[in-house]
Amino acid sequence: MTEATRIRAQLQGDKAQVRILMAHEMESGQRRDASGKVVPAWYIQEVTVTHNGRTLLSADWGPAVSKSPYLQFMLKGAKVGDRIGVSWKDNRGATRSDEAGVLIA
Questions:
Q1: Contact 75, 9 (CB under 8 A)
Q2: Is there a domain that residue 82 lies in?
Q3: Which residue segment(s) compose the domain that 99 sits in?
Q4: What is the greatest pairwise CA distance in the chain?
Q5: Which domain of life is it from (predicted)?
Q6: Fewer beta carbons below 10 Å: N end or C end of the chain?
């Protein structure tokens, strides 16, 4: 099981600032370990962010994304208590889904 995705959504006027930190090693498959063996590729391939169950964004990622990827964006029309969800799938088939509510800043 992977570490929980950290989601913070804070209302600022009529917009919410959404910050997401996904815990994942994100190995590119090009690095070598101490013994000289190639470390196998292991990275998030698909990311979906939802607002109250409606898809806000979906992204296809590759091995060039950094370890523990971070997303931040502003969301218009959010209200206190709305739900922001994040789900991802990596190239080994592992998945993770987490959700948090919008709070007042």
A1: yes
A2: yes
A3: 6-104
A4: 54
A5: Bacteria
A6: N
What average pLDDT score do residues 62-87 get?
A: 96
So what's the pLDDT on residue 105? 82
Handedness of CA 91, 70, 68, 83 (dihedral sign): negative
Number of domains making up the chain: 1
Give yes or no for a contact between 70 and 25, defined as CB atoms under 8 angstroms apart: no
Report the chain's mean pLDDT, rounded to a whole number: 96
pLDDT tens figures, 10-30: 999 989 999 999 999 999 999
User: Average pLDDT of 72-96?
Assistant: 97
Q: Is residue 100 part of a domain?
A: yes
Q: Which two tokens stand for residue 42?
A: 């292991």
Q: Retrieve residue 95's tokens.
A: 């998945």
What is the reported pTM?
0.92
Q: Which amino acid is at 7?
A: I
The answer to whether residue 1 is domain-embedded is: no
